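Sample entry (150 residues):
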Amino acid sequence: MARKIPQPKGSRRQQRQEGLVKEARAAVKRLAGLARGRRWEGMRVGKLEAVLAAHGESLLVPITTLAPEPFDLHRPIQVVVRPAGEEYVATFFDANISMSGDTEEEAISNLRELIVDVFEELEADEANLGPEPSRQLAVLRTFMERTATA
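Predicted structure, serialized as tokens:
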């Protein structure tokens, strides 16, 4: 009769990494559901950012100003910066906007410029926006507004 040989379970670190990967995959599935027009089902983007940041390959960086652009921020924009090959990708998950750069700083700077450009374009064409661009504009408005002119 054959005896079952117990398989090693792996190190605690490996088990933790596998758990984080499972959490990230589940979060990505939820994001895909959101992209198809479903509700977020209780999971906040902050949870996804925390999972990605805990994985150790990405950074959570707040954007606290859009200067010199004429916009005020209501609250910091939380951005996840992660390596992607030989460059870095900065992502503002709440508004589904990403940008890359050769360095982390460049990726963040490029994203900051893109956030302003996307806001201005969406605002200019607001009457003709579909569901996802309308959602993006609504999210951006919770974070920023055009500075009042004197």
